[in-house]
Amino acid sequence: MTSPTSSDSSDYRSPLLGRPGAAEAQGTDAAVDSAGVAWHYGDPLGEQRAAHSGLIVVDRSHRKVLRVTGPDAAHFLNNLLSQKLDDAAPGFAAATLDLDIQGRILHHADVLRTDDAFYLDLPASQASTFLDFLQKMVFWSQVEVAEADLAVLTLLGDAAPPAVAAHASRDVPWGGVPRRDLLVERASLAETVAALESAGARLAGLMAFTAERVRALEPEKAADLDDKSIPHEIPSWIGRDDLPGAVHLEKGCYRGQETVARVENLGRSPRVLVMLQLDGSAPEDPVPGAEITGPAGGRALGRLGTVVHDCDFGPIGLALVRRNALEGQQLSIGPTAVMVDPSSLPREKGEQAGRAAVNRLRGH
């Protein structure tokens, strides 16, 4: 029988939900992956603000962690996923994607390489299909793929993370405040959090993490993407310079690579992920999944994803917006006026090499 606190259960409840003030996500907040952990502990905006003056610890134990081991683990994962993992050294941390043959995103996971394994964590709603896919692809490879009884804790803030016992840890390169993820034995989750609090970290709910995730332009698949989403819609997921992103542009074949290469070399994605500033005077926040249009309605120009209240900006959200609607247009979601945050606009990388070659052949 499954334990009520097991990550195998759809009714998972973190032991930290017993803390005073713990509140679960309600209404539109529940559109993000939040079931089973605290959305806040009574002071949501203060909890997020503490990340900008100290250190917070966020319970993300509702996620599932997969472990891939064996002599062929690195090449096995490298052949299936978008990240270059065949030569990943212990300590390597990044994201990775599983794509379909058209290059559309099926699964998004964070990955960590240790001395003896790869760990991939992702929302519980994606875990069973991802685990099934990986296990079916083992064939003759010397690989074992299984769920690990580990929980994810995330530290956010400028203060140095304290040293506490953890199975593994990774520093996450993203566009927000400094972030470190800890993988801890699920049975010692509460004990580890207590040790972090004793060392000066403040316990914060998932709302604080979600606000920082929106600021960092880090989407969540179920809330922010749809069944047509491709990697280039999220510019930070394309590995460039020293940032590994989720897609390595110079690795061998994997399912969906043709779409990645074509967009990288010849064009741009029609949509791109941006952060929206929402009108805080509206009586209700718009619903994730709502259409973004011009001020008088009409043709859909984008799709709203995560909506969250931020300690500095008020209501903000992530959205996939058509590139031709990013500048010079007033946007709205029903009666709510919205504005694309200028800092979230993609930085164009100039003419693609493939497009330049085509233009040269055409004499342009």
TrEMBL record:
<dbReference type="Pfam" id="PF01571">
    <property type="entry name" value="GCV_T"/>
</dbReference>
<feature type="domain" description="GCVT N-terminal">
    <location>
        <begin position="47"/>
        <end position="171"/>
    </location>
</feature>
<feature type="compositionally biased region" description="Low complexity">
    <location>
        <begin position="1"/>
        <end position="15"/>
    </location>
</feature>
<dbReference type="InterPro" id="IPR027266">
    <property type="entry name" value="TrmE/GcvT-like"/>
</dbReference>
<feature type="region of interest" description="Disordered">
    <location>
        <begin position="1"/>
        <end position="27"/>
    </location>
</feature>
<dbReference type="Pfam" id="PF25455">
    <property type="entry name" value="Beta-barrel_CAF17_C"/>
</dbReference>
<dbReference type="InterPro" id="IPR017703">
    <property type="entry name" value="YgfZ/GCV_T_CS"/>
</dbReference>
<feature type="domain" description="CAF17 C-terminal">
    <location>
        <begin position="273"/>
        <end position="341"/>
    </location>
</feature>
<dbReference type="InterPro" id="IPR057460">
    <property type="entry name" value="CAF17_C"/>
</dbReference>
<dbReference type="InterPro" id="IPR006222">
    <property type="entry name" value="GCVT_N"/>
</dbReference>
<dbReference type="InterPro" id="IPR045179">
    <property type="entry name" value="YgfZ/GcvT"/>
</dbReference>
<keyword id="KW-0809">Transit peptide</keyword>
<dbReference type="GO" id="GO:0016226">
    <property type="term" value="P:iron-sulfur cluster assembly"/>
</dbReference>
<protein>
    <submittedName>
        <fullName>Glycine cleavage T-protein, C-barrel</fullName>
    </submittedName>
</protein>
<feature type="region of interest" description="Disordered">
    <location>
        <begin position="339"/>
        <end position="364"/>
    </location>
</feature>
